[in-house]
User: Fold these one by one.
Assistant:
Number 1:
Amino acid sequence: MSTPPPPPPPPTGSPALTFHGVSMTYPDGTFAVDDTSFDVRPGEFVTVVGPSGCGKSTLLRMASGLTPPTTGSVEVDRKGLGYVFQDATLLQWRNVRSNVELFAELEGVDRAERSRRANEAIQLVGLSGFEDKYPKQLSGGMKMRASLARSLVLDPKVFLFDEPFGALDEITRERLNDELLDLFQRKQFAALFITHSIYEAVFLSTRVLVMSARPGRIVGDFQVPFAYPRSPELRFDAAFAELSGEVSHALRGAHA
Amino acid sequence: MNATGLEATRQQASLAGQPVPGEGLVSTKTTKRSVNDLYAFLGSTVAFIALWYLMHYWALEAIWGKPGFLITPPHRVIADSFLDGGERSKLLTALGFTTYVALFGLALAIVIGMGLAVAMAQANWLERSVWPYLVALQAIPIIAIVPIIGSIWGYGFKARIFVCVVISIFPIVSNTLFGLLSAERGQHDLFTLHHASRWTRLTKLQLPAAMPAVFTGFRIAAGLSVIGAVVGELFFKRGDKGIGIIMDAYRSRSVYPQTYGCLLLAAALGIAVFFFFGWLANVVVGRWHETTRKTG
């Protein structure tokens, strides 16, 4: 793979998630995010990379509505919102099936329907056969799969990921990256993904945003030209290395 | 295994809907431990009985210069209290009354204590204003409030129940409250994001999360409820004669074997309710709760 594959078609349609000049200062005076604007369209996978504590997670908290921005606004239909946090945040007293059903249950989806959707989601993330296991019996990777399935049940149009694979070992992480891309292609949601792994960012995304140290603002914006489906071998491609290098460079600049 | 080989395995596994290798289940082991537990139990029992005999035959006299009969040896206690049919039925009947008061009091303490904890978990100001009184309740010597209890509840059954509740309620409130507040922030976020009502949050998040702590509270309270029932009998002697009343009567007449017999029964009751709640905790939360080791 020495010649770069044709670039993916540019995403069409109106944005599913838009940040309009968003700033965030916490009550304790922490200036977390400064005048940030960008949007994510259906079929677009946008990843934000940045140094720790640069306000990346704040972006997601604002997108989900957990924390309202100090100035500016976030436009998103929160009805169809999925999110996966760094901790799987499964409820320890529920088995996999019942954890996966949680969001549907909170949204008042009736029992038969949510059970059907849960089965489908469990199958999709490769947890079939583990429906009756409790979180304490699962490995870190399996917990993340369950957490992913929990959101899939609502068939989200916008998916937020807050360093979901940060605590996993390299092999599990790459495997879950591959599977996440499978899902992305199948479901064509708009994804906003936070990570501090440059390789993960480049491998997954259609677009990589680089955030500066606090207060976070966007200091780099890279279109990723690789077509989907992306083979795991892409990670060893020269063009992949070159783009990763550019992102890394921008990140160092941001850090300085 | 190289990267491509692993990848191929992964794809096969995913396609077949099979568990993915390298992400195995975490197993829990329960081997050998039960055997060790048995040895430890037998060992401590033998040591306890040996110490008892040692006190009777040697230590009281040799160390403190007091007569050995003050601590009746175990075989005398058993013979006088439990092998004699009349005595045995008297003691067991008394134990029955005390058990009734202890369990009734414990049930009331659980209902009131958990209700109070749920209310306190809803509002910070309520928590702060109730805490000092709960701590004070623990510190109040029952004897100081005997007249007021007696004049309100009478000097019998109701007053004993009241004492039992006062003595056993604290660990239930404190453990339930601690448990309710122990749900993780990330888990709360999930409920916030889906606009869960206070009630949904309480029943689907906070109460289940509280269960391990709640059961720890029950176990502590169970032991205290037996103490409460016995202490209650010492102050409120009207009505049925429970084990505390009988024991006090034997003690005042210096009938040591039966005094110790009563003591053994009260202790056995405490141990029984303690282990019952340990067992119940295991049934209810054992499947999902991570403990470093299981007790009870």
Number 2:
Amino acid sequence: MSPLIEPEVAERVLRRALAGGGEFAEVFCERGAGLTLAIDESRIESVQSGASAGAGVRVLSGGTTYFAHVDGLDPDDLERAAGEAAAALHAESAEPRPLRAEAVVPQPIELRPAEVAAQRKADLLRELDARGRAAGPEISELTASYAEVRREIAVANSDGLLSGDDRTRVRIGVQAVARREGEVQTGAETLGGHRGFELLEDDAGEIAEAAAGKALTLLDAGPAPAGSMPVVIGGGFGGVLFHEMTGHGLEADHVQKGASVYVGKLGSQVAQPLLTAYDDGRMPNEWGSDSIDDEGTPTQKTMAIEEGRLVSFLYDRLTAARDGVAPTGNGRRESFRHLPVPRMTNTYIAPGDAEPEAMIAEVERGFYAASFAGGQVDPATGDFVFGVSEGYLIEGGRVTRPCRGATLIGNCLEALLAIDAVGSDFEMKTGVCGKAGQKVPVGTGQGHVRVRAMTVGGTEV
Amino acid sequence: MIELARRAVEATVGAGAGAAEAYASEDAGREVRAHGGAVESLTAATRRGIGVRAWIGQRAGYAYGTDLSDAGIRELAARAAETARIADEDEFAGPPELPVRLSPDMRGESAPELRDPSIGEWSSRDVAALALRIEEAALAADRRVAAVEQAVYADSVERVAIASSTGVEAEYERTSCYGYTQALAEGEGARETGLGFGLGRGPAALDPVRIGAEAAARATEMIGAGKPSSRGCPVVLDATVAASFVALIGRALGADAVQRGRSPFAGLAGEVVADDAFVVHDDGLDPEGSSSAPVDGEGIPRRRLALIENGALRTFLYDTYTARRAGTASTGSASRGGYRSQPSVGASNLIVASGELDLDGLLAQAGDGVLVTDVAGLHSGVNPVTGVFSVGASGLAIRGGETAEPLREFTIASDLVSMLKAVRAAGSAARWVPFGGSVRTPPLLIGEMTVAGS
């Protein structure tokens, strides 16, 4: 593969971008290729191969970002994008600094997915299908998907940065449906990483059994309770709780616009001292990891909450400059068609010292949210909602019957302060986070966590 | 464009496919984001690409790419054929076929005008001014509006061409634009947000003052909100919330979900699924609809379909594959997210029939209950297979037939079919809402839903 952009071309494009003035210019180049396939009704279908290449050029001038993007990576395409970005600027030209190439070590990939025969991927899905269906005769439907993508990026800017990354991700997902008489339940599970096909060489079929197991368990579900009660949240994807409740409110663009409940809270106690949390874009081969962010800043491990105290927001270049701090490697973009904004990478609550069983044993009547389907927050008000995909009643200190159709709802500041136990177990899970019309891969993690009181929105009043 | 699509079809057949279809699109768009009286960003973009479906026997595959040179098209065609070889055989797989006898309505002759050529007369300075006016209007509407998160204007001019080796040929152009803002209001020690939006074929269709004022009103009316008590009660869904649910219903009416047993409407064709007060059509030819086009994503002519009428489920939505599987004809309901995604069954514009009562009339009929003005967590709070849902909500209490104090942090729960059967009245004031699909709906009064708060 040829390099995405030659240094001479990058310099020419940056000069063109600054021809009408501006404090900063950047060119972001990307070449992507991916393959997805699915199995449904035990048949391999929806096989899709995609390839794209393009570039985005932005110029910053007087607080305004001028941005243009084009398909294609020919020097002509890039110059056209630079010309369009600069079209509205008519001041004296500015001079970019000479480029200095940064050495970046991409995440290690042992087995490039593109070099693995397609039949092996199809066979993997057949195995998921068989394993999930074997979990019980009540499994009536099963779908599974496989996705691989390789994205090579290069970024050059007028401060002299020239950097790049080579990113490969694979992810599989299973959704099982179980039926018994009138009852229908679903169970889902995923496995993914910033990693090669080697991720799937161990026992990938296990996730099919896990998804089917959830659906089967939920066949015995009764209605979910409605009202305020103690809630224990499961490890792994339970970390989406912190992602929504706190992570989004720490993204510096929300904070700087006054659209976050964490405005003015830096240095304050926002949680009990038992809670410490990080955003870490460097976790090896983790789903939300990259070696550099999409502005060329090396990713890092950022402590966001230290023993309950808010210690850092998450920054891209623009917001970091406004606050007079160093960027934290959180400037991410879905593709060359998008402007970078502060985004999480892998966020997690660090393991505590509570045993999950003991946490539950202390609850007289409550709710156990073992897994979530997803969540949403309004960072400005702090109001959040989580859809529970696997939930149970807690009665007399014991997990009893499963519940269908529960939602957790609350406000970030109150709920974060109400976390009164953090488990010693720990697990990371994969997610896809949407913000400002852009989707990026993010990791979420935690052990079991207990919230003293939270509103469970079920149907049983 | 159509030339390009034809070339891709030929190349794919040349690469060993028995049949092929190409979807080429090109769009030029702009986006302005304003904040604090200044333009935060100005984006200009062009996007071009092509997606090809290939069939080898009963196997189907898909590939897309952005390299439109001869070499690029050959490589794309080879990839499309290769993906088809990976797929398993499916007796219903095959390229779209045009209906043999076309009624005038289906020949696309009644296709609506989908372009507002004046879009090109608005310079980037003009549309930036429009975004700034939206922000100004939100700030001017109420002293308690402290800021807007951002005010956004965006437009696009899109051209699409579809060709297949089975004789499908279609090409169209359409323009669209939208504006929105998120206002931040402060009061009683808390911050509230409110969304205002508008959409149309061209910028002249947007009223910046109305968009800003809507955002301000939605944010300020939430100041001092508390939690409602948990109970079952009448619920009025405002048009934006009703639209979110209608979009979910449209998805559940897709034949694909139904045939695979993953829709709450499976097995209910012809059955009573709603109260008579709820009537919904899918209309891919509505001149105002943002999803309107003369043809669907496979080049089959679009038309107007009654989905739920007189309480009964009249038809599901079919594309070529699902129609073949059901032994019926496509309803022109193949929808497409662009050249990067394969067509799949989906609604175009969902139109809910309006009733007699204005919002005050609906509130009076509700008596005591909740007016829901926003919902959150629809992507995680709804089980698509069963239609059971519990989603986060905010809004206003209804007492004595009038709105009372603001409410937040509660959930509303039911299932889609029960909710439709519990519709008591559709309001008279319908509007277009672009969330999760293109929907035109009035507010809806639901007889009873579970509200969970404190």
Number 3:
Amino acid sequence: MNGYVQGDPMLCIGCRTCMIGCVVAHEGRHIFEVDPDGYDFHPKLKVIKTFNVSVPVQCKHCENPACMAACKSDAIHMKDGAVQIDRDKCIGCKSCAEACPFGAVQMVTLKNEANIDGTPKTVANKCDLCQGLPKGPACLRVCPTAALRFVQEEDLNATVQAKRLGTLKLTVAAEAQQKQTPVCK
Amino acid sequence: MGVHEIEDAALLFVFGYNGADSHPIVARRIVRAKQKGAKIICCDPRRIETARIADMHLQLKGGTNLLLVNAIANVILEEGLCDYDFIQKNTHGFDEFVETVKKYTPESVEEQVQVSAEDIRKAARMYATSGRSMILYGMGVCQFGQAVDVVKGLANLAIMTGSFGRPSVGIGPVRGQNNVQGACDMGALPNVYPGYQSVTDDKVREKFEKAWGVKLSPTPGITLTTVPHHVLHEEDPKKIHAYYIMGEDPAQSDPDLAEVRESLEKCDFVVLQDIYMNKTGQYADVILPATGWCEHDAVYSCCDRGFQKVRKLIEPSGDVKTDWDIIQSISAAMGYPMNYKNTIQIWNEVIELCPGFYGATDEKIEKNVCVQWPCRSKEEHDTGTVFLHRDGKFAHPDGKAKFAATDWRPPQELENEEYPLSFSTVREVGHYSVRTMSGNCRTLRNLEDEPGWIQMNPEDCQELDLKHGELVKVLSKRGYCITRCLPTDRVKKGATYMTYQWWIGACNELTIGNLDPISKTPEYKYCACRVEKIKDQVWAEKHIREEYEQIRSNMGIKVKGAVA
């Protein structure tokens, strides 16, 4: 199963440090350039705030990704447990951004890369789980309240199991049954 | 109390304090308290981050703080939830307090406060009965024309429930500026020497005169916020002729900027000492460039009275000096030579002259990382004071806490026909204070940049036909600025909010110079405004770009992309 980064709105304080951590992880030393136009500021996750919720929204690395199916230029692939966009192959057709049910894909214009004819290059951008970084996703390492976690198969299974137990407790008949039958020792 | 105690409170009563935007590291403690099972009551006109995770959010109408605080006290009294033993032993003034507060029934204030009497009662019961209730308050209390009274009102709640002198209780002011506690500790107030020793006390003055070898004035000075008045409206000898400004940008941060500019222009001589050029610098006769935080050694005081060391990491480059070296050089040029070699020598002099800091030696701060004053003994066992008023002993001469109830008064300038919306300045997490420092951080500028935003309720936006991101003109009686519209249901209908650091969207053009009579802090949190649609958005976008270039050129900024 692909892992994914998930935020907890009860811990998130909406500070957007994750968004900066993301850019720093992907732009490296470029962020030290004095000219803010000298590097790309395209966070691959976005903090969304509503009346009751603040939390970053990012790619869930679907097992059967709508973005990948929609891609017209074979630029989206499953690689090392993550859905990846190949910027060189991306033709900027926006199909993936429209297809993604979570709003996790955004079109971005690159400052330091151009099309062959010199026009600005616009490509699809989304979470890549910081592949290649030895310490894993930067967003969850920089979060001051540890509101983000990397969810893998066993984590998801644990969550599901906890919910199953909750369901059981809600089932009156099952609970009554438990009380009725004494334990023989 | 210490900031770390927040985590272990049973109930946090967060009043006019937006930790997530002002101090994310303190906000982390609030989140952790919640994780550990603390109840949270959040009193704030906006749906701030703390409000989302709170057990109760009292979304009061701005400017009604004391009504709500007094009504909560009223419930605690009426329902007999006071700690009478504590009141009897450790306080005085209770009867007068009861007399004032008894008329503030929840029912009598609910309409003005816009919180139901039932919710006020519920919050009061929760606060009074948790066993370990801690109050945190911030600029949503202090930046009103009636501020000190509300602080006292909150203290009343803590006194009447015996919530003092134990871990994880009490009342925590979470300060507006980094090291504002340190500035006060070091006597950057008009009425005290370092260590809160009064300038009018003969014994104290003699001590400092002896230590420094000069005659000192027994008269308190004036506060920062009354400088414009003393430049523009006073006659000699009260008139101010020279203004030496260090690490402050009044032409950006003070209320009613038109008046501030006039006073800076008319003042005979203005000196600015800062690490970057800023708006005030445009009016300065002399600019003294200082070093930044990683270019010098220093001691900070945290909001919980904790002294902490700041260490030099890199050699400063260019024509700059540390702040203490600049002061030393100016002093020498004015005929009073100082001969400090380093900050440790200065610190040693500070603690020698201040009994409350006497035990906080450099070695002790180094060893313990943080030492909270009072720390009166140099012995190793005295590692400072985490929380004050242990065993109900207070700082008044008789050792008792004093109840102080006052009646509510409304903000000075209320909404009216011409200016139908209320206006308040706030913070945002990415930019610190007047952005002298954070405005030079590229990634933070990428997150938020000129001309900033005005937060408005979506209904108000709809009435004015405003969309997200559209440039709008915001006006008050005193001035106007241009900023972008941010519709959000986190703010109430009729209320607007802007952060105060933007050069173009400079919201202090709008704010009012109404001061709290005691603290002299301006009413940044309340005035009346009007928002106007700008039909020609193309013109507006061009206008703000030109304005930005103009400000940069006035400041002499030449590097592309650099802010200052």
Number 4:
Amino acid sequence: MRIQRCSELRRHERHAQDAWIVEVFMTDILEFLKNEGVSADLLDGVRAFRTEWPAAGSGYAQRVPEPEYHYLGKDVWEKALSALLAGRNLLLCGPKATGKNVLADDLAACFQRPVWNISFHINMDASWLIGTDTYDGNKVSFRPGPVWLCAHEGGFGVLDEVNMARNEALAVMHSTLDHRRMIDVPGYDKIEVHPAARFIGTMNYGYAGTRDLNEALSSRFVILSMPSISDTDLDRLLAERFPSMKEKIRNQFVKLYLEIDKKAQNAEISDRALDLRGLLDALSLMRQGIDAGSALDMCLVNKTFDAYERTLIRDVIDARIPRELSKTEIFT
Amino acid sequence: MIKKHYSKASRRALNMIWNAAGRYDLDPPFMAFHSNGRPDDYFNTIIGLTDKWLGLEEISAFFASYTAHPKAEEFDEFLWLGLENHIYERELLERPALPGLRKKRGDEFFLVQQTMSEQQMTMQSMPVYRQQQARWASVTGRHLPLLSPKETRMADALRFSGDLGKDGVLAAMRSFLQEFYNYDPVSDPRVSRPVTGFRAWYRKLTSHSYKQNDILLIRTGSGQGDPANAVALSWEGRKPAAPTERKAEEDARYIHDVFGPPALSEEELRQAESLLCTGNDAGCRLWITAPRQMQAPDTSSEVSGSRSYQNEVSDTRRRMMKQAEHNRRYLQDNRQTVQSSIRKLTSELDVFLASFMKGMPEQSRAGQLLPERAYRIDVLRDPMVFARDGEEKDIRLRVDLLLDASQSRMNSQERIAAEAYVIAKSLHMNHVPVSVTTFRSLRGFTVLEQLKKTADSSCEGILRYYAGGWNRDGLALKCMHYLIKEDRQHPEDLRLLLILTDANPNDSLAGSAFGKNYDGAVAVDDAASAVKALRRDRILTAAVFHGSTSHLENVYRIFGKEYVRVLSFRQFADSVIDLLQKVLQETG
């Protein structure tokens, strides 16, 4: 997994009067993908899709995401784009901090489609997804759910942590996800799923509360296994996100993150503290002048609520990053 | 489910070592602690880094080579000081935080020194202390202590250079002992020989002065100048022998050699025994082991004792391995039945657990319209005419499977292993944490041997089931009760203890202080009261019974209605799901 902050692709940092002045030039995601080496045929396919289904026509243009980060990884991009261009739905599987949601948002941005983010949970049921009866003061009417809206408007439905819900609750989506591409709402109407609509599921095996996705549902997705971030990619990400960070120090933060990752993989700690966004946030705080120990406490250590686990994480940090490390020691 | 061998502090020390070593399969021979139990972060990091740079195996082998020497612990101290310098120099470039950690460690040493009483000073090994003083003074930039020419040479020799390779470090360690103690572990006839008998007694007498120092190996402080806050590098496995009678010692050694080391520390075992081995079980001992790899039957090299004793242990282990093979073959031969039982039990459990956790429907303002209440909209302006699913109950079930592994199960070992495998696999596939433990009694010990830990994803360990010994059901149940209560990590989980039994408790040791045998009504009543105690603590307890009809009354007396009788493997899945439904539904 490789995430890059796109708003900083052409970022110039100038230090003046203790303030960071940032000039941001937004780049089109297709330009970024071209630079990443993604196949020109696929990019042409995306352009054709955009022309055929312009976001402006959907009525939900404000839902088209403008992601802060871009997923880096040519292979994963090409696989995901191919699946979506072929009209398939995508299931992104992988452990925490592999960029599943970043990629899902990036894909919607790439195809310029509005997004409905649907966070799955144990009490999710069919009516929550599709819609439910309600009383509007005059009559009983149908209140559409996010899946119905997404299917109707041709959006990208991000089914976040799809395996947190019970399989029975998800059975209602079978006809939406397979070749039938329709939703039949009992007592109301049957709608066809918009040709531009796609569903992108994300899931993480092994979280407490997760279940195995049953065959019926998983067969309706193309499944993409998301790789964990490598040290090279993480180093690249930090270098691009914090160009003024000293290389020697950057290297220590990369190793620190990988050490926490290893500890979580070996089940010595939960993966709550394995938070890439948290690490980036911590570095941002350090750039604001907070010492390394406090910043890492706020953004990584305190993510876990178990006191003993916090001690273990702090031990890893202390063995690598001095608590009192200051902004001037980290950044040039 | 068995409480981890390591305390929280040990686990933390291990984590420091694993983190520095970059591997989590390491079983380090040393861990560094302050005497108040706080792990020493700097030295634990050094121990982990020693594995990274040198590999701990060979270094450990060197440390192990002189354990018979009276000054072994003093040598440990010196050599770790040497290693500290070597590792520091090697790691420095890769870990810029290391100088800060090292300096902090040095400052702590001197804080403790300031507040140390004269008595404490006399209790420690002065040669070691002088070298530590010299090392930490140079690290923290303090004035160096006045050293004799020999001490200066020692300090220089203990500055193992970072340029040395593994062989160089080992040579430096050996040369230090040769030069300053005229001692060569390679030529020492005592090497690797356990210290026993007269030699042990003699050593105890002669090493008395140093014994007082054994927690003062490396001194440091809490940062508060606390003189009691000394630090010890603890050598895992070097434990003092308990003052027990010879017979008891022999029995304990036999149990250890056959079943492996206990999962609990000696202190924890004693505590458990003092709590549990009372009343009918007075005089009994406990032995609780964690899952282990099947070991080679040839134990002659690792088991000390007479040839006949070695053969006996070796023979027992060989039989255990053979039985594991039989269990595996049985599973293979009946794979269709086993697989279909797993499928059936898994799917039925899935449906049952989902409905078990599902809440009752409740009225709401949105959801499925309830026609019989629809009039309320117009008449009463009441919008609560819809039904929605109730909130799912957050019930986390954990199952502990306890298998009777006494001699009476001899003829159905393969089947019991297969049944336990089916239950564990089905629960595991439904994400229900499950542990599997066997119990038997032997030579006065009630042995609980864990075949599968809750965290294990594989159920293969269950195939190591074998039958042999007696069964003191009451004590085994009390022991499981104790372990479940000790498992404080998941206090809110719903616990189910499922026992595969023939309901025929029977032990060679007497069942009371008056010498009644532990069998028949005494044993059954004892087991029944243990089950009652479990249920009083809201631990659901049920039994899968496959014994003779003559023991049906026993199983009823012990478990009440919460049991199911299994006559054939084919009806096994149905019987178990019926039992689970019955037991869980009663919890409401």
